[in-house]
Amino acid sequence: MAGATCLARATTALVASHAHTFASGRLIAGRYRLDEPIGQGGTSVVWSATHLISTRRVALKFLLPERANDEQAIARVYREAKAASLPVHEGIVPIVDVFVADGSPVLVMDLLEGESLRSLLDREHKLTPQRTIEVLVQVCDAVAAAHAAGVVHRDLKPENIFLVKRPTGPSTARILDFGIAKLPRVEGDKRALTSTGALLGTPYYMAPEQAFGERDIDHRADVWSLGVVAYECLSGERPTEAESFGQVLKILTQRDFTPLARLAPELPLSLVKIVDDMLQVEREKRLSQLSVLSARLRAVSFVQPRVRWKTVAAAAGLASVLVAAGVAASIHRLRENPPSRVAELPRVAPSFEPPSIRSAAPEDPPPAVISPPAKVAPPATKPSVAPATSGPRVNGGIVVAPPF
Predict the structure, then answer these.
(1) What is the arrangement of strands in the sheet containing 161-164, beginning at the earlier edge strand?
(2) Domain with 72 in it: what CATH number?
(3) pLDDT value at position 184?
(4) How confident is the model at residue 99 (pLDDT cuts 50, 70, 90)?
(5) Residue 401: CB partners within 8 Å, gap ≥ 6?
(6) Residues 121 and 264 in one domain
(7) Which helix (H) or strand (E) holds 85?
(8) What pLDDT is recorded for position 310?
(9) Are residues 98 and 125 in the same domain?
């Protein structure tokens, strides 16, 4: 594609499929020259074009040829033109003109330079928390202006959030496609869009009450859709990802999706809490005011958790130093002034003796008299018997007579 990056990537198949209706260089309404296709949706196609007199480049949105006679599709084109014109906000892409060509309405919009949030997510998979908050705050401010005008978008998704390039600094977010928006009720206007088209569009981002076909859809449906967008930007996954619309309904009914804190544990808890408050199935419990949501997003801090952990670590280190210093001082005092004696423990009378026995017992019993051991006489020596001789023999002064 030449020139500015536009609403979505065009393909050669797009040109070939509608060559009989749209072609580069063709004049539309005698004042716009088609340049190149820049995007296609389920019911419409968008071309870049140049105004012949002012040379201003614009984006023209046509119905697809097969939808040119679809009354509901035509009604949506006019609804989008009206819904995008009610709120005046720099974050909402305005419809600058509406005319009929070949029997179908054509919308004229500013040609934007940048890319859709969907293109960015397809390339980057997910965004940083800081960049996510930056985009969400801008989208919240724009959608809040629509809510103040009585308009509920009902189709917020990455494809309808366009990031406009700026000469310096990060891109700014703009809201596109109010084709199924809910407008303020006008007296005498009983026309209403059926929910079928909306359900077949993008069920992943629909609020439960919208997916269940309730008629009293209000601004809280947009809060849910932005919650899904935030979840996807922060984790790289959609909480309502499923293979069929029935499975999506099951997820919505049971709120059966992985908590954001588990997929991205590095996120600030305050940011996780905001997304959880946006994704409450019961809309009475859902965060409802986008002004409050925007303020809470701006208040998310990425410095406070780090300061807290550093403070805890410093306090723990200081406590360790103080304890060690106290122990060292105690050891030093003991070395300088060793104790002279060890205090004796008080004597405690046994508590199991009866009181009567304790009182009758003498305090200091007399010492026991121990008699010395009696001397034991050595055993008597048996006199030796001399061998027989013929006469008497003197043995130690004793005359031993021979036996008879």
Answers:
(1) 114-116, 161-164, 172-175
(2) 3.30.200.20
(3) 80
(4) very high
(5) 392
(6) yes
(7) helix 71-85
(8) 53
(9) no
Residue type, 188: G
The residue that leads in pLDDT, 127 or 351, is 127
39 membership: H or E segment, kind and range: strand 32-40
Q: How far apart are CA 370 and CA 173, in angstroms?
A: 112
Domain count, the chain: 2
Distance CA 156, CA 225 (A): 6
pLDDT number for residue 57? 94
Whether the CB-CB separation of 46 and 59 falls below 8 Å is answered with: yes
The string of pLDDT tens digits covering residues 42-59 is: 788 999 999 999 999 999
Average pLDDT for 308-327: 66
* Segments in 202-341 forming alpha helices (H): 208-211, 220-235, 245-254, 260-263, 269-278, 290-298, 304-336
Q: What are the tens digits of pLDDT across the range 53-82?
A: 999 999 999 998 888 888 888 888 888 888
Determine the angle formed by the axes of helices 290-298 and 129-148, rounding to 10 degrees: 160
Does residue 105 sit in the same domain as residue 254?
Answer: no
| 102 assigned to active site | no
Q: Which of 155, 189, 222, 364 is catalytic?
A: 155
Type and span of the H or E element at 398:
strand 398-400
CB 246 within 8 A of CB 212: no
Do residues 5 and 165 touch, judged by C-beta distance below 8 A? yes
Which residue, chain included where needed, has tokens 């006679």?
Answer: 69
**Chain length of the chain:** 404
Burial label, 261 (beta-carbon count in 10 A; 0-12, 13-18, 19+): middle
In this structure, the answer to whether residues 103 and 153 fall within a common structural domain is: no
DSSP, res 182: B
Domain end point (choices 261, 293, 309): 309
> Torsions phi, psi of 348, nearest 5?
-120, 125
* CA 19 – CA 23 distance, rounded (Å): 6
Q: 122 lies in which domain range?
A: 114-183+199-309
Domain of residue 207, CATH code:
1.10.510.10
- The neighbouring-strand residues paired with 33 are 27, 50
One domain, residues 103 and 240: no
Q: What phi and psi, each to the nearest 5 degrees, are found at residue 80?
A: -60, -45
Three-state DSSP state, 206: coil
* Residue 159 DSSP one-character state: G
Lowest mean pLDDT, pick from 80-89, 217-226, 264-273: 80-89
